[in-house]
TrEMBL record:
Residues 95-122 form a coiled coil. The keyword Coiled coil applies. Residues 1-24 are annotated as: Disordered. Keywords: Coiled coil. Residues 7-17 have a biased composition (Basic residues). This is Chaperone protein DnaJ.
Amino acid sequence: MPENKKNLRCQQRRREKRALQRDVEQRCQQNMDLERRVTRSESENMDLERKVKRREREIEMVRDEARDKTIESLELQRRLDANQKQQQIGRALELINAEQQVAELQLRVQKQEFEKASLRGKVEEFAYETTVLRAAEKSRKTSTGSTAKLQLNARGRGEYDISDADIQNFYNSLRTGAGGDPRKGTVLNELIVKFFYGDFTPQGFKRYSGLWTGPPYGKKDIAVAVAKLKEQMANPMFVTKGGVGYGVDETQKVEDDGKGWVWLAAEMSSGGLVVELFKSVPYGKRAILVAKQSNVDELFQKVNWDTALANSEVTLGGPQVKQRSVDSR
């Protein structure tokens, strides 16, 4: 019995030893498998690294190409900008030359118009003087007393006086209409729009430079201009000196004669009719309107624009010479 137990133990130990050896061999095999896997992973990693480096080189090459393309594009853009600038400079120079030529032509035209206006004025003045001289000669042959009277009239005195009654009658003749605004397309509304549609500043009148509702000036433009005219007649910022009589020296004229009237009168210039406001009788001017400064609305409630238009052709308190064109432009 003891020997059997001993044999059994030996067999059991041998079995355990063999099992242990198998386990060791199995573990060694696993280690070898792991080593092979590690080796394979390292090889794969190296392949991946090579691929990554190759891809990085490719990316770098693409970047270099993109950088070169960008540089080329910038160079082309710079050349294009330079060409465009040169073209713009050339066009600007051409435009400047064209504007200079237009300005020179306009200056020549203005000079010619001024010369024409001067010649017309001289012709009219000569015609008037001729008329006066003929009348004086005829009167001289009639009588000595008549001669003295005609000489007085030839100097522009006496018959050109304007009395308070004359002013009142002139005012009453204007208040025979239906009021409102002047008709569209007449010289009168063009004058009012031209010289009153804008801003009156201490530095001068700044004419409106926006878009008109015309052409010609639309009803809205005329309404705005008439409203501005009323404001200025009630409280004028710029007043031209007048009064005293026809043909007096400028130093004798006054800004306000104290009678309470405000006048809108026109005068012919080389550029056409020019309208101004007076607070004294505008002798020798074309008096268009007159109103009480303290009650301007009274005039405009019943203003007769046809009468006002007719007034623009007649000289007040001065010789009635042939008027030139009333075109305000």
